[in-house]
Amino acid sequence: MAPVDPDLSNSNFKPLAVHYAQTTLIGILIAIISATISKAHRTLPPSQHTRSQDGVHKSRSMLFAGLAAISAAILSYLALAARYDSYITWAQQVDVAVPNTLWDGWYAQGENGMRLQLGRWWSDVDFTKQVDEAVVDSSAALWWTQQQLMGTLVWSIYVGIEGQRRNMSSIVIAAFVLLARLSGLSVAQNLFNIAIIFTAVPLPQSSKKDPLWTPHPLIYLVSGGAALLMAGSIPYTRTGQSAIAIYRMVYYAAPLMLALMPSVVPKRLGMQHSNFHTLRTSQTKIFYVLGGLSLFFHLKQGLISILDNTPTAHKQRHNYVWNMHKDVEVTLFSQTHVAIGRVLEMLNSDPVVGVIAWDVLLSALTACVWAFDRSTNLDGILKCSIFPWHSSASEKEAPQINGREVSEAPNDTIEVKPRRRPGRPKKNTPAANASAIDENANLRRSTRHRRTTSQMTEQTDPDYVPSAAAKAQVDGNMHEDDHNGEDLVGDSESAALGWGLFVLGGLGLQQAGVLGSECCA
């Protein structure tokens, strides 16, 4: 049997091909999304193409495009760092020369030390499995992983609802979800925000389903709740291969299913609403139920992470001068501080977990900026997150009589003119001046030609009555022009509330509040 050429087993083609294939797929998805945004910009009506509106759209789109670029740069760097760290660990285990080291790298071996053994590394190490095991291996890593999963599930529902409302095709909606899985949730979230900005009016595309038709909320609750329960069950199965299988299912399949639900659900399993008010009311239930589940799993996993990373209550204080090692009791505050620090240090300690952790932080920041930019209603955020029974003052109807609002108190003062005495009034008196003005006014004649009766009786055009579809589209996008950004205090409060929900309840609760309020406004 002929010997096998060692260069064939050490070929770098396969790992590089996988890397460039992923990069190419991300580029294709971004191209599809960019084409949709460009089409939406070209088809805007003249009312949205004014000079002031174009400037506002440009500044807002540049803001979110910059956030998307920053997110892509950070996540790409961490992804490459994770691959490099895996290669270095493997090279040290199998005693392979690492490039650019002092004694056994490029400086010592010349050109031979620069060759990377990517083929051997790829065949010996299952990098995909290694990444999946790292994100569910510890309670601290799983705390970050669950936040990303739950935030992605809620965001996918939002993408499906808003995509149907704006007549986006199923391919475009799937492109957003796949981009979130391949590049990062924060990147796809910023690009979808740009698409929302340029689709204030739905795209000119014939939709097979009525704009007032939606899948039954129970379908969202059952499917979304099942996905959240699967994500919450990962800590109990992380010792075996079932945890990785559940993670991959929730990571890839569940978001795509939730986003495409308005397109794939049959009409008989949906609801036909009479107006957009009832439609949005039914969708509010979806977000606050999923937000409540996310809050429960976030607090549970956070408590487990703190308990697992809490140091012991006693430690030894070493004193090598007097050779005395006393036991010192650690306070509860110090223990909690150390435990929280160990959970948060996953941002930089492990690049594999760092990709997920930084994606969670950038996605939370994007949601806060979106709440500030869109002037998201505070009452709506609370109603879709943790206070479903909360009602704003604007929802309270004013007292009505026969279907009309009661006007303000009428003016009871009646103007009483003084009685005019008989005879000619005296000079330099108000009555005399008034009578003189009246006489002069009566003597004046208008030089205008009076309009004839035939010109006055022109036939008026009938009133315009919009169709049901046009009225539904206009009603569904009435809130698009209300976000002018003039109330900076209110906008800042919306962003601060969004960040507070993220700190206290995790990314899933924040996305449910901010995006639910935006979707159901």
UniProtKB/TrEMBL annotation:
Renumbered to this chain, the Basic residues biased-composition regions fall at: 418-427
Where in this protein does the record put region Disordered?
Answer: 395-463
Sorted alphabetically, the keyword list is:
Membrane, Transmembrane, Transmembrane helix
From what superkingdom does this record's organism come? Eukaryota
Transmembrane intervals? 20-40, 61-80, 173-198, 218-237, 249-266
Q: What is this protein called?
A: Uncharacterized protein
